[in-house]
Structure prediction request, 186 residues.
Amino acid sequence: MQTFMQREDERRLQIAERQSQLLVPPVHFAMIAPGIYRSGFPSTKSHPFLLQLGLRTIIYVYDGKCLEYHEEFARANQINFKHYRVAANKEPFEEMDHGQVAEILGEVLDTRNHPVLIHCNRGIRRVGCLVGCIRKLQAWAMTAIFDEYQRFSGTKIRISDQEFIEVFKSDVRIDSQHKPRWLVAE
Prediction:
């Protein structure tokens, strides 16, 4: 039978271990709105951080394969994982598919999927376009949308991404019973 002091020492040790665990967010991590986060591809070092978010869904937007450890992390933690193969905007003739982006936005904006993390490899271009489209639905001014895009893209700004955001008008299907309260669009 443990003495009070032994139990207290164990409790203090457990607290110290939790406090010493370094939490590392993925590159370009940020909250977009309550329940919606963005980032680049999470490394295994980011897993403890992601677990603290209590994610229900991870949406990966990239036209290539996903690394197995990432899908396994989602499975092991009962996180719904969705991989959308989305090509990047490239001059002069390649553009993200408007219908596919509308479908992804429908998933992101469905509160049954929250908290949700949307990410691509770097968290800049594809996710930047998705966030820009969310901001349009929130009735942000285009200058504010482009400013946010540029803060995350740094020197990797692509005019084709900004053009995509500006002309995006696809019908985003949002279940009115499960849309975020902060969403302006009907």
